Amino acid sequence: MGFTPKYTTEAPQLQEVQQARGPLVLEFGTSWCGHCRAAQPHIEEAFTSK
User: Fold this and answer.
1) Is residue 36 part of a domain?
2) pLDDT tens profile 1-50
3) Is residue 7 assigned to a domain?
4) Total domain count for the chain?
5) What does the DSSP 8-state code read for residue 25?
6) Which residues in the chain belong to E strands, given as ranges?
7) Are 43 and 3 in contact (CB under 8 A)?
8) Lower Cβ count inside 10 Å, N or C end of the chain?
9) CA–CA dist 20, 38 (Å, integer)
10) Which residue in 1, 3, 2 sits closest to 44, CA to CA?
């Protein structure tokens, strides 16, 4: 799992989440929500900044 800038209709499987190593962030939102869309650049920056 990596940063995915587009929302998907498929949720990650519980087993996939439980087996993840290291920090994990699950962000829930929709493509039609203004708040969700406005947050995307900030979330991406948090994942790509060093």
Assistant:
1) yes
2) 566 667 777 888 999 899 988 888 888 888 889 998 899 888 888 888 66
3) no
4) 1
5) -
6) none
7) yes
8) C
9) 27
10) 3
* DSSP summary character for residue 10: P
Six-digit token string for 30:
């929709």
Q: What is the pLDDT of residue 50?
A: 65
**Alpha carbons 17 and 36: distance in angstroms, whole number:** 22
- Rounded-to-integer distance, Cα 25 and Cα 6, Å: 15
What pLDDT was estimated at residue 2? Answer: 62
Number of residues that this document lists for the chain: 50
Residue 15: what pLDDT? 93
Range of the domain at 29: 14-48
* pLDDT on residue 34: 93
Whether 44 is covered by a domain: the verdict is: yes
